[in-house]
């Protein structure tokens, strides 16, 4: 996986973290404040109040209170959070261990003649002279050739036994959870653009959301 592709794959995790950090505790506060309200309902049983329909709209009033802008925003943010979880789960990439015997379709400890036969068989299928597909070419160079080299060349085999790869010790690449657009911008402008995106798309709606519910929270406390 290239560096830009890895960074793009990590960006949803960054967005998930930014959204979840304020959303989860605020949702808990919202739920606790809702249950802590002491609703005192005094229903008059006289015929005048019963006929006037004064208490008939209790259900509709509760529904209208739930369907406020802040509550709908809260539900929408949780839907976005669930979509991010689904996306991250289905686009995660596992680290593949280099196994030359498995690549060539052999059992561990296969003889040199079996290794050569397997290499010739895979060469007919993936060699660039036999298969013009670019993906087949990449697979042949990155896997078939290196697997054969790891099992036949003494130096490559020693590297494979020590480090798990015929090319020797492999460096660990750490990606940055930002989209390539921000990483390609030099200087302070990239950071300013990132802060602007976070502020407009996440912090501003959250501040408006909290400010709308602040009077209700103060009444409860």
TrEMBL record:
One of its GO terms (molecular function) is protein transmembrane transporter activity. The chain crosses the membrane at residues 12-29, 63-88, 188-211. One of its GO terms (cellular component) is Sec62/Sec63 complex. SUPFAM superfamilies: Chaperone J-domain (SSF46565). SMART domains: DnaJ. This is DnaJ protein ERDJ2A. Residues 99-164 form the J domain. Keywords: Membrane, Transmembrane, Transmembrane helix. GO terms for biological process: post-translational protein targeting to endoplasmic reticulum membrane; SRP-dependent cotranslational protein targeting to membrane.
